[in-house]
Amino acid sequence: MTKLNCVNLDQFMEEFAELEKEITAVNGKNNLLEIMLEDANRLIKFYLTKEKSLIEERDSLLITVSRLQQTLQEQCNLRVENERLKNNMAHMKRQNERSAEDGEAELQRLVGEMKTEEDRHKRELEAVRQQCRREVEQAHRKGFSQLEAKDAEAKKLLEEKDMDLEEMKKRLKDQERERQSELLKLQMEFGAKLARVQNTAQWSQQQQQQQQQQHGSNLLPQSVFKRVSSPHR
C-alpha cells in the first residue's frame, strides 16, 4: 500500500508567491544595474574622447611653443647678423674715407711737386734767357758770325728746356689722371660693397618681418579646452 505525502497547498502557494516577488525584485535590480552600466559606458566614452581632445590640444601647444622658440632663435641670429653687417659697413665707410683722404693728400703732394718743378723750370728758363741775352750782347761785340752761332745755340737750349718742361707737365698730368682713376675705382668699389651690404641688411629685415607675420598668424587665441557636448543618457 502506497504511502501518500500530505502537501499543504496554501503554504506552497504562499512560498511560490514570495519566490515570484523575489524574482521580480532581482529582475528590477538587474535592469537598474544594466541602466547604470550603460551610463557608466557612456561616461567612459565621453571621458576618453575628452582625454583624446586634450592630448591633441597639448600636442598642438607643444608644436606652437617649439615654433616660437625657433622663431626667437632665428630673430636673435638675424639681430646678430644685422649688427655684424652694420659694423662691416661702418668699417668699410671709414676705410673708404681714409683711402679718399690718402688719395687727396697724394694728389696735393703731386700738385705741389708739379708746381715746384714748373717754378724750377721757369727759373732755369729765365736764367738761360738771361744767359742768351748776355751772350747775344757779347756776340754783337765780337762779330755777326759768332752772334748767329750763339743765337742758334740759345734757341736750341730754349727748345730743349721747353721740351723738358712739356715732358714734365705731361708726366705730372698722367700721374694726376692715374690718381683720379684710382680714386674713382675706389669709390666705385666702395659703392658696390655698400650696395651689397645694404641689400643683405634689407633682405635680412624682410625675412625677419615675414617670419614675424607668419608666426604671428599661429599665435591666434586658442581654447585650451575644446567644448565637448555632454552625453545623452
Can you characterise this structure?
With 233 residues, the chain is mainly α. It has one domain (18-211). The protein is built from two helices and no strands. α1 packs antiparallel against α2.
Low-confidence stretches: 219-233
Distance, first to last CA: 67 Å
List the total number of helices: 2
Name the beta content range. Answer: under 5%
Helix content: over 70%
User: For the report, how would you describe the main beta sheet?
Assistant: none
Radius of gyration equals 57 Å
Shape: rod-shaped
List the helices and strands and how they pair.
Layout: H1 9-142, H2 144-217
Helix pairs in contact: 1-2
Coiled coil: 82-189
Organism: Seriola lalandi dorsalis
Protein name: Coiled-coil domain containing 152
Describe this structure in a few short sentences:
This protein is mostly helical.
Task: List its salient traits.
2 helices; rod-shaped; 233 residues; mainly alpha; Coiled-coil domain containing 152; CCDC152; disordered C terminus
